[in-house]
């Protein structure tokens, strides 16, 4: 079907989605999870074709992001089951009041309608998005990049089989067939057919949606995440946090990209940082892009280069990290305010006063004290899974879970009152 036909089909069933009971939604979600496991071989076969076609066209870190295995497929199924266990976000009464006139006013959560997601080479987004949309009473329209299209198609086929098995429409989950830029433009400008657009990917995709979308759009994703090592930091804790935040999975948006080090400890800490991230890593040592002060301290050591003009504003998504020396927590906050993408930023310190200042002054969706930025995730925050990480302030911020996929309306009941 054409993109327009898919959008029209999605709209034709959105009222049906709004009326799904909690029981049928949970049964459908568990059936979707079962069918993903039953079709694991088909999904892996499709994914292998995607990976083979992408070789030489995207980095190995991005290949890892694209690649599925049985463990990752089991994780996708488990993510869907976790969503089924969460409370139904639809029909929640947020406020209830009786006015002097006698009218009774209720503020009640409702689905958004048709939610479109444009994303890149992460097949697991396909199942996460579909599960969250179904549980929140929305119809989803998925538009993946060409690198992951065969994988997404196989996953959608499996999930739709789950929907049909419990007697509900397969059109609650839709995959755009056209992977050219034209389909993205059609979705961005589909006024009246798309109730919310969520772009999930790199800066180019997000900027294109923000600049061109005529439908409501939530800005997500880009993560120039910082870890600031304060003068009163526990060095071992700081090194563990930085290693995890940078190297556990560098291709994701909650991986750190910039390390800020207090000038009082830089002579002692930076050699330890180099030792941990470069010398001790036989596989995938980190390249350190250093400001003038840190370069003088680490000059001559392997994988140490001077930072370029844009390196403190770059989401590397690779084993690369920018390093800067700052004069205390206030300068760290100032640097973050100028260069952060408002995603996730961290301070490592034993000084509660410095920590409290950092938490109050850093204006990001997730602010950490003594913990890795890698925790910015719907599952880790108890949301089951997520649609992405919102870096804006309206209508949602941080991991987009079930509640963020609903709106609300006022229901007023009376017995003949007039004004």
Overview of the molecule:
The structure is a single chain. The relative contact order is 0.14. The protein is 41% helix and 19% strand. The termini are far apart. The strands form four sheets. The chain has a seven-stranded parallel beta sheet, sandwiched between helices. It has a four-stranded parallel beta sheet with strand order 5-4-3-6, sandwiched between helices. The model has no long low-confidence stretch (mean pLDDT 95). The chain has 419 residues and is of the alpha/beta class.
Topology:
Layout: H1 3-12, H2 14-18, H3 22-38, H4 40-54, H5 60-66, H6 70-85, E1 93-98, E2 104-111, E3 114-119, H7 124-135, E4 139-144, H8 149-165, E5 173-175, H9 181-188, E6 196-200, H10 203-212, E7 225-229, H11 235-247, E8 256-262, H12 266-279, E9 287-290, H13 292-298, E10 304-306, E11 320-326, H14 328-339, E12 344-348, H15 352-361, E13 366-369, E14 389-390, E15 398-399, E16 406-413
Parallel strand pairs: 3-4, 3-6, 4-5, 7-8, 7-12, 8-11, 9-10, 9-11, 12-13
Antiparallel strand pairs: 1-2, 2-16, 14-15
Helix pairs in contact: 3-6, 3-8, 4-8, 6-7, 7-8
Features:
alpha/beta; globular; 419 residues; 7-stranded parallel beta sheet; 15 helices
Condensed summary:
The chain is of the alpha/beta class and 419 residues long. Helices cover 41% and strands 19% of the residues. It has 15 helices and 16 strands.
């Amino acid at each position: 079907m054409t993109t327009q036909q898919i959008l029209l089909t999605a709209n034709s069933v959105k009222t049906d989605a709004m009326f799904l009971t909690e029981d049928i939604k949970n049964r459908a979600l568990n059936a979707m999870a079962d069918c993903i496991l039953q079709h694991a071989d088909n999904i892996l076969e499709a994914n292998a074709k995607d990976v083979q076609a992408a070789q030489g066209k995207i980095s190995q870190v991005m290949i890892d992001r694209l690649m599925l295995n049985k463990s990752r497929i089991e994780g996708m199924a488990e993510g869907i089951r976790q969503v089924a266990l969460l409370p139904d976000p639809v029909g929640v009464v947020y406020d209830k009041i009786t006015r002097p006139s006698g009218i009774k006013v209720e503020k009640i959560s409702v689905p958004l309608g048709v939610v479109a997601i444009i994303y890149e080479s992460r097949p697991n987004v396909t199942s996460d998005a579909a599960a969250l949309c179904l549980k929140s009473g929305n119809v989803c329209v998925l538009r993946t990049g060409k690198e992951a299209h065969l994988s997404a198609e196989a996953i959608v086929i499996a999930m739709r089989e789950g929907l049909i098995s419990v007697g509900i429409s397969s059109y609650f989950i839709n995959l755009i067939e056209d992977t050219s830029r034209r389909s993205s433009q059609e979705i961005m400008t589909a006024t009246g057919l798309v109730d919310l657009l969520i772009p999930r990917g790199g800066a180019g995709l997000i900027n294109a949606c923000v600049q061109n979308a005529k439908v409501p759009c939530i800005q997500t994703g880009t993560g120039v995440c910082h870890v600031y090592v304060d003068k009163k930091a526990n060095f071992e804790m700081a090194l563990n946090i930085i290693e995890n935040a940078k190297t556990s999975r560098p291709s994701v948006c909650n991986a750190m990209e910039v390390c800020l080090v207090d000038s009082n400890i830089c002579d002692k800490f930076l050699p330890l940082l180099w030792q941990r991230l470069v010398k001790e890593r036989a596989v995938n040592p980190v390249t350190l892009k250093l400001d003038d002060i840190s370069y003088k301290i680490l000059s001559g050591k392997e994988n140490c280069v001077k930072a370029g003009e844009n390196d403190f504003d770059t989401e590397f998504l690779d084993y690369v990290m920018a390093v800067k020396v700052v004069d205390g927590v206030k300068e760290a906050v100032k640097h973050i305010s100028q260069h952060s993408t408002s995603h996730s930023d961290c301070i490592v310190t034993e000084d509660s006063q410095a920590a409290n200042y950092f938490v109050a002054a850093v204006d990001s969706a997730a602010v950490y004290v003594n913990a890795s930025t890698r925790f910015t995730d719907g599952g880790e925050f108890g949301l089951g899974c997520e649609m992405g990480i919102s870096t804006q302030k309206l209508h949602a911020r941080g991991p987009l879970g079930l509640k963020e996929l609903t709106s609300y309306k006022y229901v007023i009941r009376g017995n003949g009152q007039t004004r």
